[in-house]
Amino acid sequence: MKTKYILAIDQGTTGSRAIVFGPDGEIVSSHYQEFKQYFPQPGWVEHDAEEIWNSCVNCIQQSLRKVRLSSKEIFAIGITNQRETTVLWDKKTSQPVAHAIVWQCRRTAKMCQEKFLKSKAHLFRKKTGLVLDAYFSGTKIKWLLDQVKGLRVRARRGEICFGTIDSWLIWKLTGGGTHATDFTNASRTLIFNIRTLQWDEELLKILDIPKQILPNPQMSGSIFGVTKDGAAGLPSGIPIAAVMGDQQAALYGQGCYSPGTIKNTYGTGGFLVLNTGKQLLYSKDGLLSTIACDEAGKPVYALEGSIFITGAVIQWIRDQLKIIKSSADSEKMIQGLKDTSGVYFVPALTGLGAPYWKGDARGIICGLTRGVNQRHIIRAALESIAYQTKDVFDVMQKNLGKPIKILKVDGGACRNNFLMQFQADMLNCQILRFRQTESTAQGAAHLAGVTTGLWDKKDLERFRQKDCIFRPAMSEEKRKVLYEGWQKAVSRAML
């Protein structure tokens, strides 16, 4: 009998990864590739969608080549992706009309503060579960239609396609045969009604976005199309059987299918997501209401706290300050260091997300004295990830109405044992890390396997194996003092 493999494409903010999963749920092979980040103006962040596609193609080919696996042995494909990042492309040529505007980009922050749009904030909140912020796709689409000459006219004629990165990859994999997205990605656009699960005509009119450009939304666990011969070196007919935004995929990969289960992903940003099941909850404290999915890939509701910069602060130290050669060096550099010597690092490099939602906040390092060195700054950067998580965790716990005893974690930074222990100390909560920390790709692969009948829920439970549990060991008094110092530093970043 032919062995069946699942290919997961995990397209992130700073790089792409292809992971091949075997029928036993184990990773057979993977390949990762970073791509260029464009910063044309302060606060602006862009990607080249073609570079993203090419990076995915290379990752797919390299992951197969590493284990001499034939592309014909791929049974199904699952896609998970950076959300909100906005691509517009020509329907006929499949060429992007401009650089993709990344979710981190703040160019539409002033647009969101304009009197007319601001007066509609409550409407966006009610229908989409989101706050009116530059973070989301809607104002990015409007900006491109406003700024690229003749683009809105072409869009109305049906010549232009919009998509978040999942739609772009589906389009490319199917040779332009399918223009689709899933409910989880659609729910992050600011123009999708999470009550009706449809594009919202009223919101489209407010932002002057032609409906013709929008992809077809469908449930995460369904067939989105099949590969066209030659796309990414894959044969025709492989089903794209799962699509989820990265955070919803991580939630699924962590086995958080039922109401009350919660995870945190430490990636470029930080994302706490709480499954609320069929109950749509609205937070008054800066959390977002969004769409996730149950074990079968059907839509359910969730609360989410989005932190703009977590792992990216370590990349910034690596690439801009150049005081470490790799992100993994951050833990080694601070070994034996008892504290930060009073230093706090607020990494508001693209503003502050939940629960503050201050797009004009800027990063600061404060508490510097002559005794401070590079190691203190690195430790302060790592601690900032835990503090920002506490900002959101405390609000989420308040909204849930009961203590959260276990937080499941994934993402690259969760491999840092110092950070995980400090996180447990700051939250006064157990941190559960699974052996497989690539939960986003795992979630996409798992759902693709479920959709195609390769696996069931019992299989997925067997695939998840615990690696470590970090338990709080800090006194309440010390926790309080440290966190008060953080809150003072945040207040300075928002001046």
Describe the structure.
The chain has 495 residues and is of the alpha/beta class. The chain has a domain at 5-245: Nucleotidyltransferase, domain 5 (2-Layer Sandwich). The protein has helices at residues 49-66, 109-113, 115-118, 121-128, 137-147, 151-156, 165-173, 183-186, 201-207, 246-253, 311-321, 329-333, 374-400, 417-427, 439-451, 457-463, 476-493, and strands at residues 5-11, 15-21, 27-34, 46-47, 74-81, 87-90, 100-101, 160-163, 180-182, 192-193, 198-199, 216-218, 240-245, 262-266, 270-277, 288-293, 299-307, 344-346, 364-366, 406-410, 430-434, 466-470. The chain has a seven-stranded mixed sheet with strand order 16-17-15-14-20-21-22. The chain has a five-stranded mixed sheet with strand order 3-2-1-5-13, sandwiched between helices. Helix 10 crosses helix 15.
